[in-house]
């Protein structure tokens, strides 16, 4: 319904959302542990079969977006380890490989993905949620932060942003659940009694993947980050955006994360 605009860039693919649930159940209020839970079972196999994914972590759970045209490959790749369902009119209907086999071609093995540089700003971030009924109380502040508090990025030259301090604010509203990522300084502008976080109140540091916009056709970008973190049992909160990918890790683990990723890049040269 958005009007056409020269300022709005739209990817040419339609994407579908995958939600991975343990044992067919997931308590609605559970705290997400990050993409490391599904790194080996979902993210890595899809990368090996040349399926490009977008990742979206939320306060409650994690979502994987795949292109609609890749659905047959996704089903065939994951059916051996997962029971797969599609949602129809609010009901979960089992899906089998036969349902999507028409025209299925086994993909060629993916080429070795490009190892993109990673950067870690000094900014400290908070991962938060808000009760939907209290959202109106912070709506004006949200609008100010989203649209008016920072200079538009196009006023700066490409690559000129000082990564010692990165501007990043993420808001998602999915099935009534709200997730917000903001830097610790911005959090101080909001009423503290309305923003909910984990009982530990931990802060997060960011690893940004890509020195230039990544595009949507390359495969294995999420796996490059998720696999080594999963091997080291480090939780991550992962957000793919139109231009870059971002992984948030607990602040106390950032040094280990940077070391792991640097070692991975050096070993692949």
TrEMBL record:
Cellular component per GO, a single term: cytosol
Localization per record: Cytoplasm, Cytosol
Annotated GO MF terms: arginine binding; identical protein binding
Entry-linked InterPro entries: ACT-like_dom_sf, CASTOR1_ACT-like, CASTOR_ACT_dom, CASTOR_fam, CASTOR_mTORC1
Swiss-Prot/TrEMBL GO biological process terms: negative regulation of TORC1 signaling
Family: Belongs to the GATS family.
Subunit-level organization: Forms homodimers and heterodimers with CASTOR2. Interacts with the GATOR2 complex which is composed of MIOS, SEC13, SEH1L, WDR24 and WDR59; the interaction is negatively regulated by arginine. Interacts with TM4SF5; the interaction is positively regulated by leucine and is negatively regulated by arginine.
Task performed by this protein: Functions as an intracellular arginine sensor within the amino acid-sensing branch of the TORC1 signaling pathway. As a homodimer or a heterodimer with CASTOR2, binds and inhibits the GATOR subcomplex GATOR2 and thereby mTORC1. Binding of arginine to CASTOR1 allosterically disrupts the interaction of CASTOR1-containing dimers with GATOR2 which can in turn activate mTORC1 and the TORC1 signaling pathway.
Protein known as: Cytosolic arginine sensor for mTORC1 subunit 1
Species of origin: Sakesphorus luctuosus
Lineage, opening ranks: Eukaryota, Metazoa, Chordata, Craniata, Vertebrata
Gene symbol of the encoding locus: Castor1
